[in-house]
Amino acid sequence: MIGVFATPSTLEVMGLAQKLGGDALVFILNGDDQAAERAAKYGAGRVVLIDCGAICDPAVLYDAVAGELSGLSHLVFPATKDGKTIAGYIAGKLGIPNLVDVVDVLAPNKFSKYSMGNRGAEEVEVDGPVALVVQPKRFQPAEKPSKPAVERRKAMPTIELTGREEKAKGSLKIEDAELIVSVGRGFKKQDDLKLAMELAEVLGAQVGCSRPIAADLKWLSEDHWVGLSGHKVRPKMYMAIGISGQPQHIAGMLESRLVVAVNTDKNAPIFQYADYGVVEDLYKFVPVLKEKLRKALGK
């Protein structure tokens, strides 16, 4: 049997369980009846809804499910901040390998995963149970309706949440965008970002950015940050404007279907990953491109 840890918004990780084969025991953190129904739609053999409060403490969660884990061949977790933390803790308690960023299943005990900041991939073979951490949409689950038994448990944290301050968020998660116009240090000042925003509006795209724009200059919120420490994206088209292409950024956009790069430096690393490259001053090129697209698209 395969154990799946997910939240209502990351149940797509059940696609990996389907690829592995076998029944799935699905632990849904802070899940409700609707989440249980979705898990049943994807063929769950059994569902455990776990109320773990505003802060899901890995230690308390482990104690609540420890009796169920010894007979499981694989444990699947979503590659979210909480998912990675829980996976690492549970794998450590069980003394099993913890593979992060799994991209393919080659055999029940052999997997392909990213390495070197997503710039390469490696094959890993394990002997015995293993924890697998995967991006929620990497393996899309098929509908295989089942009628699983549903159980409820509590795993309330021993620490208390005294307050919460939300970060400002956009209307769409950058991970979900099909088209992204991303900005970097080639922009001289914050007001100049409107060039990229206007281009994105014409294309119907979201605006992303490299680390300095969000983390250092704070010209955009971290919701726009694409990179190893930011968000990993897989759009149909990724346009990098004024971005040099450091490894940390490449790790976040490497799986883009089509990459367009605009930079004044013909030797910028971003061009090594681009399908189309433009060596030009963004302040000259972007306004022209915007107007050409506006006319072509009738906007």
CATH superfamily of the largest domain: HUPs
For the biggest sheet, the summary is: 7 strands, parallel
- Helical segment count: 8
Spatial order of the strands in the main sheet? 5-9-4-1-2-3-10
Number of strands: 15
Task: Indicate the CATH topology of the largest domain.
Answer: Rossmann fold
Name some characteristics of this structure.
2 domains, ETF_asu_C, 7-stranded parallel β-sheet, DHS-like_NAD/FAD-binding_dom, Electron transfer flavoprotein subunit alpha, electron transfer activity, 5-stranded parallel β-sheet, ETF_a/b_N, alpha/beta, Rossmann fold
Describe this entry's structure for a reader.
The chain is an alpha/beta fold and 299 residues long. The chain has two domains: 2-154, HUPs (Rossmann fold); 174-297, TPP-binding domain (Rossmann fold, 3-Layer(aba) Sandwich). The protein is built from eight helices and 15 strands. The longest helix has 16 residues, at 282-297. The radius of gyration is 22 Å and the shape is elongated. The model has no long low-confidence stretch (mean pLDDT 92).
Task: Provide a quick synopsis of the model.
By secondary structure, the protein is an alpha/beta fold. The protein has helices at 14-20, 33-41, 58-69, 81-94, 194-203, 211-216, 247-253, 282-297, and strands at 2-6, 24-29, 46-51, 74-78, 98-100, 102-107, 110-115, 120-125, 130-134, 149-154, 179-183, 206-209, 237-241, 259-263, 276-279. The model has no long low-confidence stretch (mean pLDDT 92).
